[in-house]
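Friendly challenge for the regulars: who can give me the structure tokens for this chain first? No prize, just bragging rights.
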Amino acid sequence: MEGMLLGRKILYVGESDALRSAIDNRLKESPLSFEIMQSSTIENLGTLLENNDFVGVITDVKASSTSLVENICELCNECDICAILIVVIEENVEEKGQIPVTEGNSMFIITDQTRFPKAALKATDIIISEVMREESLALRTGWPREHFRSIFENARVGINLVGLDDRIIEVNPEFQDMVGYSEEELKNMTITEVTHPEDLEKDYELLNRMLAEDEDRYQMEKRYITKSGDIVWANLTVTVVRDDNGNPLWTIGIAQDITKQKKTQQELERAFKAMDSSIDGIAILNENREYTYLNDAHADIYGYSRPADLLGLSWKVLYGPEERDRFQQEIMPYLDENGHWKGEAVGRKKNGKEFPQEVSLTLLEDDGLICVVRDISKRKEVEERLRKQREELSEFAHAMSHDLSNRLHQVSGYLDLYHQDHDEEMYRRAQRIISHMGDLLKYSVELADAGQVVQKQSDVDLGEVLMEVASTVLPRTIDYSQEELPTVEADRTKLLQVFRNIFDNAVTHGKPENIKVSEERGNEGIHLQIMNDGKPIPLEHKENLFKRGFTTSPSNTGFGLTIAKKIVEAHGWKISLKSVNPPIFDIFIPKVFIQ
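First reply, four minutes later:
Bragging rights claimed.
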């Protein structure tokens, strides 16, 4: 290291003893050791450069000496030596605009006779700064100094050299890009000026500890303030460069931009905060299906006081034997194939009590998964109460229908006797009223039944059911056709009622010549579409079509499509009027019901 810090040679090419003296004095003020040599002409400059390891060349030339400038630049560039040319603008010579700022390894300082001494000092400072930058890096690794110009300029991390007075000595292009300032701007600033105020105290504390305790480095996550006012996060490593006696000279900061990682981390923290406060149980499991994260709600749902009680355990501890088998044989294979699964399951609490739950599973890229659980015990209790109420309503409707039907039969019998001796038209009106009342009773019972939860589900061939309804409901004057249709899980008896009501509606109101049933398959399920070529349905009727009692004919009850809708929705499906001209009824059947 001693050989590196001693014997740094600077060559002054020129005849000015005053300029050489000014350069020499400036070099003595530097913390580094330099030796200055002088050549009065450039005739032997090439030989001097080849035979000596100069760290820089300083010369003064007149602006009019174009060929001299070119020769000096060419020789210094060939030897990869930093050359500072003090270009003196002569009186009445307008050549300043023709002189470049840099050319290869050469740099030009344009001045006049009045500012000549200051230019000499600036040239010396530039070379000292360049040497400090390169040797600082060399000291940290032991590599040859000449390697570092390329490394420093092309490094993918920001590098800054900072003096003990906090002033920035040198920065590489990456650091300039990071903070948005030019090299010239940064060299006139302190490192404090680009440091976030909230990080200053920690930064200086670590710096002072390093300098006082003879440590050689410290690390921290630091925020820089860019020229535009934005914040850049960096993983900063600061090392100190010392002289032969161990005295600190300056520091080297290597800053790796971690702004994107920080933003991702902050987003994750916000997500975990939201997960922690969620009323739903949320958990993350690894590829072995062991818990790596649980929020408080997830632990609480299963009767555990702390999420930590379940970390590292398998999901199987939260389910009974039958449900574990179901997960392994049905749910997990579906999850692996589709990437997600949602449905109901039966969980087991810490005390052994089982409870109904709604579960959503999502597969992660690393083969782990996210599990969201909601306790639906209360919802199931409400559903059970509603089911019992519907059963009671259905039983009451059947009893009422039976009782009133008997009374209507008696009235009809009396009317028959009355008809023998009285007006024919009056008799027919009375019979129509009785018939209409009978229809009302029939549909009231069907409506009550339709509201019940569907229970008798089995594999039902849609094509077979539709063909059965068409053959019994549709007159022979209507041409009926259907595509090949799938088998679904449903209540066959109630499906017959759905299609019977839809066909009845088409025949009664549309008077079609053709009815066609087709299907459209999608990622989520199928759309069963029933189309007829009869009269268009008025657009203003579309919103009311499925409402109870809506009808355009006084002789109809308006219950048929209402009953169909209730049965469809009781299955977990959806029904809508897709088109009014031609009329197309659309029944959406989710994928889970298709066999």
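The CA atoms of residues 304 and 350 lie 7 Å apart. The mean pLDDT is 78. Your move, everyone else.
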